[in-house]
Every structure is written in C-alpha cells, then in structure tokens.
Specification:
Elements (H helix, E strand, L loop, with lengths): L2 H7 L6 E2 L5 H11 L11 E7 L1 H17 L5 H9 L6 E8 L8 H21 L3 E5 L7 H6 L6 E12 L21
Antiparallel strand pairs: 1-5, 2-3, 3-5, 4-5
Bound molecules: flavin mononucleotide.
The site of flavin mononucleotide has 8 residues, from strand 4.
Length: 186
C-alpha cells in the first residue's frame, strides 16, 4: 500500500484477533514509531510490549485499579476489567517520558509521544494488521502506573491494541476539507 493511501484510509478496529504482529513486524512498528517528530531529539517516549500471559496480568491490574477507584464496584465490572486486555493478541503501552527542558515544553513532549503512537498504528496497518488506540481511566490511574513501573515523570499516552482485524472495517467518516481548514491571508 502506498503511503498516501495508508494515511487516507487508516481505520481503527475494535475487534481484533490472532495473529498479532510477530517479532519482525514489531521491529518495523518500533522503527516507524521512532521517526516521530521530536523537538530536541529528547526521545520522550518508550513502549511496553504486553502479550501472552502478561495480558491477563494487565487485566488483574486494571481490576485492582477499578476496585481502588470505587470500592463498591461489582463482580461483573471487575470481570470486564480483567477481560479488557484480552481483546487483542498484544498491547503496546505508549509512555511519554517528560523531562524539564528550557525550550521543549511538556506539551511538545506529549505530542511527540502521540506521534510515536500514531506511527506505530500506521506501521501495523501497513503490515496488514489493525489496531485501536485506547486510554480510559486506566491510562491515568496511579495503581496502573505503579504496576507498570512508570517513573514519576512518565505518563501513559495510550494502550495500542494490535492484532488482525475481526469483521468488516467500519466506514470511514466523510469529512470535507472546508470543515477543518481554510486559507489564512492578511
Ligand atoms: C488519545 C486517544 C485516546 C483514545 N481512547 C479511546 C478509548 O479509550 N476507547 C475507545 O473506544 N476509543 C478511544 N480512542 C479513539 C479510537 O482510537 C479511534 O480513533 C476511534 O474509534 C475512531 O476510529 P478511527 O481512528 O478509525 O477514525 C482514543 C483515541 C485517542 C487519540
């Protein structure tokens, strides 16, 4: 698929099944992510690869976090938390590693991490896989951060669920360029 077709047709997949990207595909995905625009070459992002049994362990972590957020959470909701990571053969946790910098503010480092996440999603799709970027309460939860060994200057930009598309692609939204761009002149 040529680059413009990929950029214009990328489409998230909520239903993902096996196989997920193998080690060769993951190497391409990380190489693509690492070309994110990056003011000052700070490389303000890193990835955690979660697959196999670790997906269930991540589900337990999500359940622990949900219980801590709301001690009255019911068993059905806890089960849903445990099963969330099992919705894909693998998950990439995208972590923004924020540092104090005289000319590169926090927002630029967060945006760079977002671009790295997008690069990973695009590469996965270019390789014939599919994915979806998710956050939700778990991305901002300190118990999840601790369980994943994040340091205090780190944030979760997203959980990239990756695998093989299950079912039909959803239709792409129709968006006129005039809805979101106009030419500026003085
Ligand atoms: C930072 C970020 C967080 C997101 N979090 C969620 C989420 O938690 N759950 C969800 O269903 N979609 C989430 N999305 C949206 C999906 O990734 C996706 O963009 C959306 O389903 C629209 O599909 P499309 O990307 O194919 O247009 C998030 C997107 C971004 C950029």
């Amino acid at each position: 698929m040529d680059a413009l077709t990929l950029l214009k047709s990328r489409n998230s997949a909520a239903r993902l099944c096996a196989p997920g990207p193998d080690d060769n595909a993951l190497a391409e995905i990380f190489a693509s992510a690492s070309r994110a625009p990056d003011h000052g070459r700070l490389r303000p992002w890193r990835f955690l690869l979660v697959r196999g049994d670790a997906l269930s362990a991540l589900g337990e972590l999500f359940a622990d976090a949900a219980q801590e957020r709301d001690s009255s959470v019911n068993e059905a909701d806890l089960l849903r938390c445990r099963q969330q990571p099992l919705r894909a053969p693998l998950i990439l946790v995208v972590i923004a590693c924020i540092s104090e910098h005289p000319t590169v503010p926090r927002i630029e480092q967060q945006l760079s991490a977002g671009c790295a996440a997008y690069g990973a999603l695009l590469a996965a799709e270019a390789l014939g896989y599919a994915g979806i970027w998710r956050t939700g309460a778990n991305a901002f939860d300190q118990i999840v951060h601790r369980g994943l060994d994040l340091e205090s200057h780190e944030e979760i930009s997203g959980f990239l669920y990756l695998g093989t598309r299950g079912g039909q692609s959803k239709p792409l939204p129709e968006l006129a360029q005039t809805d979101f761009m106009k030419e500026w002149r003085q």
